[in-house]
Specification:
The chain has 508 residues and is α/β, with parallel strands linked by helices. It contains 21 helices and 17 strands. The protein has three domains: 234 residues, 2-enoyl-CoA Hydratase, Chain A, domain 1 (Alpha-Beta Complex); 184 residues, 2-enoyl-CoA Hydratase, Chain A, domain 1 (Alpha-Beta Complex), CATH 3.90.226; 35 residues, no CATH class. The strands form three sheets. Strands 10, 11, 12, 13, 14, 15, 16 and 17 form an eight-stranded mixed β-sheet that branches. Strand 11 and strand 12 form a beta hairpin. It is elongated. The model has no long low-confidence stretch (mean pLDDT 90).
Length: 508
């Protein structure tokens, strides 16, 4: 066999991965082979691949990881993808060298980096080579942190990501997980049973649905490999290539049949409504992509387009827990705000907030710390930012949701807005408590109702609008979409003035 035949043979062997092994049919049940995933993700074949022949000397095709450059919708991206059919996608010495080298390449070229994760973790039999020391598996996470906010880093979790490998999704800004296939945990069910005596299934311990609904590790839950790839392609369309670019603007998609928003938003502050309906009505048709839809549902975070421009929306949803801010919803909002600010995506806040959760349980759980995290994220933003008072705008929640003192570019209000330090119920109780206690029982209800009505009448959005430092404009809901588009177009012309270079000490 001459050198050219030898090359062709080794390349064919590496490209096949473990897909031809007797075990591959079982391993790929309900899954796509890694190279099929890559072809589906990219516009076509990769432009080039690094390290194809890594692992050739030890019989591990590509050393269980594929690293390529290609395009998605005509824009260059870098992809790092585990091959679960090759030694269970585990990390060895050459694997980690390939991964870290490609992370550094993506950062130097300022390309979005997509991790297609399907790995049993690190190889114990190679730990002496790459566990301790300055050149070790931990460099993967070091690079993720170093490049966070520099280039978009997206994790698509198709299968397992156990132990230390679980930090790959944790350190990406967005994690897309395949239901019933993806798992992530620091200790396996077997380890949990041995160490703490807990009997639990893999799905309950670290399944995709649990992480998307309970832990908050997952951002978008999908049903299949194909859907995961489709969502990833669409998701990247909201982002620039790197922090130094602006997000791509698409042609404006006009509303086919805009709804009457004056009928959608209840005037009665105590009647809940699904703010997702308002978001759909404001956004370009077909452009809404919700992030963390199953987690902390009292707050909605979504990427949308307004007049073709990518915008991140943070909204209170009174349909769930009255839209009150809890620990998880505060964390959810802060993380989303930081992500949008990192990649120059303007922010729109839709306020319908009665405040942060109160009570001993909330205080013991650290609602002040978590609430401060949201407020900190809002105050750090340098991207164009608009806040709309939809209905309630009470107390500390008003500030956490981008109230006027946090310096948004514009504070708009709908005629249904009720900005106040506290709502009518709490205000009347605080102001008239002693008098109410002195009244005969039969007179209390009527007195409270009268005082609440008086207080509500005094909470007037038009009085707020009389102060140009508080509310820039009161807008009819049916005119809000056009108003937002024009304002974001104008505010996009400003040059961001970041804080002086420093490391903020964030609330945790």
């Amino acid at each position: 066999m001459d050198a050219y035949e030898k090359l062709a043979t080794k390349q064919a062997w590496a490209l096949a991965g473990g897909s031809t092994s007797p075990k591959s049919a079982k391993l790929l049940e309900n899954k796509l082979f890694v190279r099929d995933r890559i072809k589906l993700l990219l516009d076509g074949e990769p432009e080039f691949e690094d390290g194809l022949l890594a692992g050739v000397e030890k019989g591990v095709p590509a050393d269980a990881v594929v690293t390529v450059i290609g395009t998605i919708n005509g824009r260059k991206v870098a992809v790092i993808a585990n091959d679960f059919t090759s030694k269970a996608g585990t990390w060895g010495y050459q694997t980690f060298i390939k991964i870290t080298r490609f992370q550094e390449l993506a950062a130097s070229l300022k390309l979005p980096l997509i991790y297609l994760v399907d790995s049993a973790g690190a190889r114990i039999d190679e730990q002496k080579l790459c566990f301790l020391g300055r050149r070790a598996w931990g460099n993967i996470f070091y690079n993720q942190v170093k490049f966070s906010g520099l280039i978009p880093q997206v994790c698509v979790l198709f299968g397992p990501s156990p132990a230390g490998a679980a930090y790959v999704p944790a350190l990406c800004e967005t994690v897309i997980m395949v239901d019933k296939q993806a798992t992530a945990y620091l200790g396996s069910p077997r380890m949990a049973q041995m160490a703490i005596g807990e009997d639990i299934s893999e799905e309950e311990l670290g399944g995709a649905r649990m992480h998307c609904a309970v832990s908050g590790l997952g951002d978008i839950l999908v049903k299949s490999d194909q859907e995961a790839i489709e969502v990833t392609r669409r998701y990247l369309g909201y982002f620039p290539q790197s922090y130094s670019d602006k997000p791509p603007v698409h042609p404006t998609v006009e509303k086919a049949s805009p709804p009457d928003l004056s009928k959608l938003i209840p005037v009665n502050q105590n009647v809940p409504f699904d703010v997702k309906l308002l978001i759909e009505a404001l956004a370009d048709d077909g452009s809404v992509m919700e992030v963390k839809a199953l987690f902390a549902k009292e707050m909605v975070t979504a990427l949308v387009r307004l007049g073709g421009m990518p915008v991140g929306i943070v909204a209170n949803n009174s349909k769930f827990k009255g839209g009150v801010l809890f620990n998880d919803s505060s964390d959810k909002g802060a993380r989303f705000i930081w992500m949008c600010n990192a990649f120059n995506i303007p922010l729109l806040f839709l306020q319908d907030i009665s405040g942060y959760m109160i009570g001993s349980s909330a205080e013991k759980a650290g609602i002040i710390r978590h609430g401060a995290k949201l407020l900190s994220a809002v105050c750090e933003t340098t991207v164009p930012r608009i806040c709309v008072l939809v209905r309630k705008a009470y107390g500390g929640g008003y500030l956490g949701m981008s109230g006027a003192p946090t310096q948004p570019d514009a504070m708009l209000a709908l005629p249904t807005a009720m900005p106040a330090l506290v709502g009518p119920e709490a205000a009347v109780n605080a102001i008239h408590f002693n008098h109410i206690q002195q009244l005969p029982e039969s007179e209390r209800t009527a007195f409270i109702a009268q005082k609440r009505e008086e207080y509500s009448a005094d909470v007037d959005v038009f009085s707020a609008a009389a102060d140009p430092m508080a509310v820039e404009a009161v807008v009819h809901p049916n005119e809000l979409r056009d108003e937002l588009i024009q304002r974001f177009r104008a505010y996009s012309l400003k040059k961001a003035m970041p804080f002086e270079k420093r490391n903020a000490v964030h609330p945790v």
